[in-house]
């Protein structure tokens, strides 16, 4: 399967969000990544339902919604109603993770689990067959533009082994510090979806930057 590119609108220009979403529609991006932060689980606040609904009205591509919030189970149905196609919750925020995954799937959305840099892959061993996507955080969640954590490559390889061992259909997504220099190594390690925010939106030609990431071959 060809890898997917999911530009993060956290790095978009919110003064021209409509234009940026339309640019993504016209680009070779596969998904639109939407980071939701509550200022409690992570030290930053982004946007909630109104902005997601506004994006959904313009977007022609699936919305990949990453919930960096406490108690995500309280809001799953609302995020699905607001347009989320993939809903990813953090392992660290879900004491009843299996229940939350089932809750997401019951809405018809794909169920994802995100892991902070310090969280080991082994904790997903009993759940991997119930997960559609694992998002490995390659920076500490909360802010864009951070430096990529090199240990991410090892975590991807460990996760790929677990997926194969359990016969899971789970995809591997990488979020944080993705760029042209590390993308091929991430894909070689086993990544399926690359999230790129600042690297895309701060480039001179965002559609071409997306295309360049899309065209990387192993």
TrEMBL record:
Q: In which pathway does it act?
A: Carbohydrate degradation
| EC assignment | 5.1.3.1
Record GO terms (molecular function): D-ribulose-phosphate 3-epimerase activity; metal ion binding
Active site annotation, chain numbering: 35 (proton acceptor), 175 (proton donor)
Summarize the protein's role: Catalyzes the reversible epimerization of D-ribulose 5-phosphate to D-xylulose 5-phosphate.
Please give the PROSITE patterns that the UniProt record associates with this protein: RIBUL_P_3_EPIMER_1 (PS01085), RIBUL_P_3_EPIMER_2 (PS01086)
Q: What domain of life is recorded for the organism?
A: Bacteria
Q: What InterPro entries does the annotation carry?
A: Aldolase_TIM (IPR013785), Ribul_P_3_epim (IPR026019), Ribul_P_3_epim-like (IPR000056), RibuloseP-bd_barrel (IPR011060)
Quote the catalytic activity from the record. D-ribulose 5-phosphate = D-xylulose 5-phosphate
Give the EC class as a word.
Answer: isomerase
Q: Which gene is this protein's source?
A: rpe
Entry-linked PANTHER family: RIBULOSE-5-PHOSPHATE-3-EPIMERASE
Listed name of the protein: Ribulose-phosphate 3-epimerase
Biological process per Gene Ontology, one example term: pentose catabolic process
**What is one cellular component GO term in this UniProt entry?**
cytoplasm
What UniProt keywords apply to this chain's record, in alphabetical order?
Carbohydrate metabolism, Cobalt, Isomerase, Manganese, Metal-binding, Zinc
Query: Pfam families of this UniProt entry?
Result: Ribul_P_3_epim
This entry's comment on the bound cofactor is: Binds 1 divalent metal cation per subunit.
At which positions is substrate bound?
8, 66, 142-145, 175-177, 197-198
Q: Which residues bind a divalent metal cation?
A: 33, 35, 66, 175
In the record, the note on similarity to other proteins reads: Belongs to the ribulose-phosphate 3-epimerase family.
Look up and give the organism this protein is from.
Answer: Rufibacter glacialis
- Required co-factors: Co(2+); Zn(2+); Mn(2+); Fe(2+)
């Amino acid at each position: 399967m060809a890898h997917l590119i999911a530009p993060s609108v956290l790095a978009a220009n919110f003064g021209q969000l409509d234009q940026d979403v339309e640019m993504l529609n016209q680009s070779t991006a596969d998904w639109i990544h939407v980071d939701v932060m509550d200022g409690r689980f992570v030290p930053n606040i982004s946007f909630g339902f109104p902005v997601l609904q506004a994006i959904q009205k313009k977007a022609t591509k699936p919305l990949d919604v990453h919930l960096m919030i406490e108690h995500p189970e309280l809001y799953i149905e609302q995020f699905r109603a607001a347009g989320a196609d993939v809903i990813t919750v953090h392992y660290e925020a879900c004491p009843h993770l299996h229940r939350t995954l089932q809750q997401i799937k019951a809405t018809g959305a794909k169920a994802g689990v995100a892991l902070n840099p310090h969280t080991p892959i082994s904790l997903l061993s009993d759940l991997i067959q119930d997960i559609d996507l694992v998002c490995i955080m390659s920076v500490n969640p909360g802010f864009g533009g951070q430096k990529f954590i090199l240990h991410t490559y090892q975590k991807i390889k460990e996760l790929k082994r677990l997926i194969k061992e359990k016969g899971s259909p789970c995809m591997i997504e990488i979020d944080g510090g993705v760029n042209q220099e590390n993308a091929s190594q991430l894909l070689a390690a086993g990544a399926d979806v690359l999230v790129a925010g600042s690297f895309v939106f701060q480039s001179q030609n965002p559609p071409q930057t997306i295309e360049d990431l899309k065209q990387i071959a192993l």
